[in-house]
Amino acid sequence: MSEQAPESTLPYPPIHRDKKFVVLSDWDGTITTYDSNDYMTDHLGYGKEKRRQGNLEILGGKVTFRDAFREMLESVTKNGHTFEECKQILHDNIKLDEGFKSFYTWCKSVDIPVIIVSSGMAPLIRAVLSNLLGEEAANDIEIISNDVTVQPDGKWEIKFRHPTSGYGHDKSQAILPYRDLPNPPTLFFFGDGVSDISAAKYADLLFVKSKAGGDNDLAAYCKREGLTHLIFEDFGKALPVVQSIVEGKKTIRDVTSS
Ligand SMILES: [Mg+2]
């Protein structure tokens, strides 16, 4: 199988070359409690039932993430919702994982970069982040995501980072450069859904967020593919695990083999 990297239409932030640990995390449904794109599709687009059907089709390999995700977002624009309106609705409704702020602050204090790797659209992520984490952190935190094209009349469509990849945004491309460094850092990846499938197998330690209602697509994928992962409820619960590894008290094997 060809492992050729898809061409990126959007820039990447520079690699952190001298770190011992790097945290990469999905945004929607992982750092936030409700996936903002799901929120838009469920409330402003064609609804949850059809959206879940799409997620399961992605998981089953019947359709690419890119095409199913584009269709979900199109159901929002077809209902006449402008980008600004969507931004405001998400700003007002999306909440942060309750442990994330302390997790992020701790990582900053011990010089561990935290990078958001998302299939969402950058302006929406920043709008929600500045509301929940403050302007400074929102500007400071690195985001590798998709983007959006907004027309003068307010109509909008997602601009994929990797339009030639079935993932739309192939998240492995945010991780692999770290693995290629002469002294690669230990990589922690946090995710929750089908958008994280492209990244799942490249982390040193994969955290998968637990989901109420059994809609845990990433956990289902990991189980099917036999990928070692750790289920976490929120970042407050993940923090001591990360700390124990960073402080050398435990190894990744210790925390995953229980
Ligand atoms: Mg997600």
UniProtKB/TrEMBL annotation:
Record flagged with keyword Endoplasmic reticulum: no
SUPFAM superfamilies cross-referenced by the UniProt entry: HAD-like
Keyword Hydrolase: yes
Alphabetical keyword list: Hydrolase
Transmembrane domains' residue ranges: none
Domain of life: Eukaryota
GO molecular function: phosphatase activity
Pfam families reported for this sequence: HAD
Xref: PANTHER family: PHOSPHORIC MONOESTER HYDROLASE, UPF0655 PROTEIN YCR015C
Name of this chain's protein: Uncharacterized protein
Annotated organism of origin: Agaricus bisporus var. burnettii (strain JB137-S8 / ATCC MYA-4627 / FGSC 10392)
Taxonomy of the source species: Eukaryota, Fungi, Dikarya, Basidiomycota, Agaricomycotina
